UniProtKB/TrEMBL annotation:
Gene: efeB
Descriptive protein name: Deferrochelatase
All copies of domain Dyp-type peroxidase C-terminal, residue ranges: 206-391
Domain Dyp-type peroxidase N-terminal: 51-195
Keyword Magnesium: no
EC category: oxidoreductase
First-listed, main subcellular location of the protein, grouped into a coarse class: other
Catalytic activity: heme b + 2 H(+) = protoporphyrin IX + Fe(2+)
EC number: 1.11.1.-
Coiled-coil stretches noted in the UniProt entry, renumbered to this chain: none
Protein localization: Cell envelope
Transmembrane segments: none
InterPro entries registered for this protein in UniProt: Dimeric_a/b-barrel (IPR011008), Dyp_perox_C (IPR048328), Dyp_perox_N (IPR048327), Dyp_peroxidase (IPR006314), EfeB/EfeN (IPR006313), TAT_signal (IPR006311)
């Protein structure tokens, strides 16, 4: 169900659905003062079956931050930390300052669709004496031949995803989460991302990435009959288990650098063959509109496949992977231009699934063996996190594990 969506009831999805800013305007109308004000006044609910920030429409700003528990901190300190963090998230997501020492950075702004989402990494369980309750789904991801991973910017005991439609609201949440970590946890790595600003396009559209492609079309939709089954651990824990993960999901986080100088040298037609879709509107090269299915068997006058055998959209399609599917909900990033003149830019690729072994892993394995996109990207960091279900009234996130 779409139960975890923002207050505006809008969800991430493909064509026509994924209104990043539909939440703000409610229509495709040109922004007026009222519509712009509603960017700020839109709130995502903290309590619910699922944590916010999974099916919530993409926000304009994102911060990802991983923490390691401090030496000497164990289960008790972790429980107190999650209790503090949950209180901070609930308060800030309602647009309120948090605590007596609030920095004031978010004053004047409304909630701005802020979401704060918490996850546990594999190493958390040994540190807290909870190894027996560690889900098998947190077993390390396999190595991929194209990996160039920086261990210092990968994994971590705890992970927090922050998204908001206002940069100051997002920064305020990041600083508050860091402050509330206190002596219990230290930042391991931190990354900043962005998406389109609400109202930037005349109509709600699927987002574009920094290669200029429409990205998100093939995502499962909350209206699909099997959406919950693919994305969330069942209410009874189910086969994926464990029970404390009921309503939760597993996040795979990959910092994927785009080699934009190389990519931009390709003619548009070549770029389109790499994906198998048109850049202008995301339609398959076999015709139709963005929502038309790919015709994977269609050949051109030269007898060759119209969507090449190594096209990214072909290789990653669920039909080609035994139904493996995930909800991709990324942020773009740009961290400046290096001494060699190349931008440190790409995708903070975040995908959500009930089980990484039936989502990310088989698809990435296949992409690793021959995706036409591979020469233009580099996976630089990786994380896998168990994101528990949403907190019920009076509960904090992760309470069912930590108490
Ligand atoms: C589809 C771009 C990495 C899985 C697509 C599409 C684009 C795209 C443009 C077609 C539109 C759409 O359906 O969203 C990229 C870029 C990447 C990247 C630029 C890296 C910088 C990955 C990775 C995975 C992945 C690492 C998973 C391991 C998928 C899936 C689809 C897809 C599942 C949808 C296929 C379908 O339903 O037909 N990607 N992608 N992508 N990509 Fe990627």
């Amino acid at each position: 169900t779409a139960g975890a969506t923002g207050a505006a009831g809008l969800v991430l999805g493909g064509a026509g659905g994924a209104g990043v800013y539909a939440a703000a305007t409610g229509s495709g109308a040109s922004p007026d003062a009222k519509a712009l004000a509603s960017v700020g006044s839109t709130a995502a609910p903290f309590h619910g079956e699922h944590q916010a920030g999974i099916t919530t429409p993409l926000q304009a700003r994102g911060h990802l931050v991983a923490f390691d528990l401090a030496p000497g901190a164990g289960r008790k300190e972790a429980a107190a930390l999650l209790r503090r963090w949950s209180a901070a998230a609930r308060t800030m997501m309602a647009g309120e300052p948090f605590g007596d020492t609030d920095s004031g950075v978010a004053l004047d702004a409304g909630p701005s669709s802020l979401t704060v989402t918490f996850g546990f990494g594999r190493t958390f369980f040994a540190r807290t004496g909870l190894n027996s309750r560690r889900p098998a789904a947190l077993d390390p991801l396999p190595d991929f031949s194209s990996d160039h991973l920086d261990a210092r910017r990968s994994n971590g005991d705890l992970w927090v995803q922050i998204g908001a439609d206002d940069a100051l609201v997002a920064f305020h949440a990041l600083r508050t989460i860091q402050r509330e970590a206190g002596d219990a946890a230290r930042v391991r790595w931190q990354m900043n991302g962005f998406n389109r600003s609400p109202g930037a396009t005349a109509q709600p559209m699927t987002a574009r990435n920094l290669m200029g492609q429409i990205d998100g079309t093939g995502n499962p939709k909350p209206s699909d009959a099997d959406f919950d089954q693919r994305i969330f651990v069942p209410a009874d824990g189910g086969a994926e288990g464990p029970e404390w993960m009921a309503g939760g999901s597993y996040a795979v986080v990959r910092r994927i650098r785009m080699l934009l100088d190389d990519w931009e040298k390709l003619a548009r037609g070549e770029q389109e063959k790499v994906i198998g879709r048109k850049k202008s509107d995301g339609a398959p090269l076999t015709g139709g509109s963005e929502t038309t299915e790919l015709d994977l068997d269609k050949t051109g006058p030269d007898g060759k496949l119209v969507i090449p055998s190594n096209a990214h959209a072909r290789i990653s399609a669920p039909e080609q992977n035994g139904g493996a599917a995930m909800l991709r909900r990324p942020f773009s990033y740009h961290d400046g231009i290096g001494a060699d003149g190349t931008p440190d830019a790409g995708l903070l690729f975040i995908c959500w699934q009930a089980d990484p072994l039936r989502g990310f892993v088989p698809v990435q394995r296949k992409l690793d063996r021959g995706d036409a996109l591979s020469p233009f990207i580099r996976h630089e960091a990786s994380g896998l996190f168990a994101v528990p279900g949403g907190a019920r009234d009076g509960e904090y996130v992760g309470q069912r594990l930590l108490e």
